[in-house]
């Protein structure tokens, strides 16, 4: 079964890539490699 998501389909990877350009930029570190931003415990930050 799928899950209700008003922005994107649940299988599209938006948790990693973001559901918009603004969210994508907020999830990514401001470094040339574009890696995901980590919090102080070393885990992925979520919006």
UniProtKB/TrEMBL annotation:
Transmembrane segments: none
Pfam families listed in its UniProt record: An_peroxidase
Record-linked InterPro entries: Haem_peroxidase_animal, Haem_peroxidase_sf, Haem_peroxidase_sf_animal
Originating gene: cyox1
Protein name per the record: Cyclooxygenase
Gene Ontology terms describing biological process: response to oxidative stress
GO MF annotations, alphabetized: heme binding; peroxidase activity
């Amino acid at each position: 079964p799928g899950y209700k998501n008003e922005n994107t389909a649940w299988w599209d990877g938006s948790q990693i890539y973001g559901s918009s350009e603004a969210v994508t930029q907020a999830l990514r570190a401001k470094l040339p490699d574009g890696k995901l931003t980590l919090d102080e415990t070393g885990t992925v930050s979520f919006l």
